[in-house]
Amino acid sequence: MTCSTYRGRFAPSPTGPLHAGSLVAALASWLDARAHHGTWLVRIEDIDPPRCPSGADQLILAQLAQCGLHPDEPVVWQSQRHSYYAQALQQLQAQQLAYPCGCTRKDIEAALQAMGQVHARHIERPYPGTCRGGLHGKPARSWRFALEKYVSNWPQTLATQAQAAPFSLEKGILTWEDRRLGPQHQAPTLVAGDFVLQRADGLYAYQLAVVVDDALQGITHIVRGEDLTVNTARQLLLQHALGLAHPAYMHTPLVLMPDGEKLSKQHGAPALDLSHPLQTLNTAARILHLTTLSPETTVSDALSQWVKQWQATYNVRRD
Predict the structure, then answer these.
(1) Based on C-alpha coordinates, what's the Rg of the chain?
(2) 135-148: per-residue pLDDT in tens?
(3) Where does Zn(2+) bind (predicted)?
């Protein structure tokens, strides 16, 4: 499908240099934008400054440039956009869709254990709703999105909002379409519960920031790693609550380590070796099921060839 107003983005967190997995996401989002004759943006998601070492953002931008991936508009930094996140939080508060929470992590863990929930590795644990009915004398630490309330009131909410939703929500199960993975289903109240919008340290949470920024930048298509699929249901509902447009989503294959774990900075993923950019890009292209090109190919020519392959693979028509 061709989109004349296509706007895509790559949004890395500058907690270190790009690695093989993040290059796959960057290349996929760039190729999709070019295949649609669209605009490709880069947004630095430094919403959590304590985790972002000085200079990591500039290193990422330099790595992208070495790979021939240049944004079409000036780069945006989330750390400079707090006023927008504050406005969105205020809107949700006015709609009674955000409430203060006084729970510490220890409190949440104790509540979940009391409910008989055992902590499974790598599985997100839903908020037990302790402060949903009030703080009960505890000081406010954070703000949460009233997801349980929003989902419970969905039939009435949908009836009173003119905005169309590219998803369905029935009996607590949200269903949407992923361009690569096909139909997706999630019960967001069971996966995450009432998730955090603003943290105890005053910083805004990823889910709120990414939704606000995608809307402000007019993002129409989101192409990102498959590990982020789990966030999509929350983001769709938050977009709907704020009256924002819904981008189309596509989640790409992950680079896995020998033990099957996702390659990540957390697991010690090495920085990209860009002494031979085409060789590194070829590795990313293989993950995306694109043809590996000969060493004599220039980076520019390789990217052009991959755009054509991407158009054929994902049925992107040229006008």
Answers:
(1) 20
(2) 988 999 999 999 99
(3) 101, 103, 127, 131
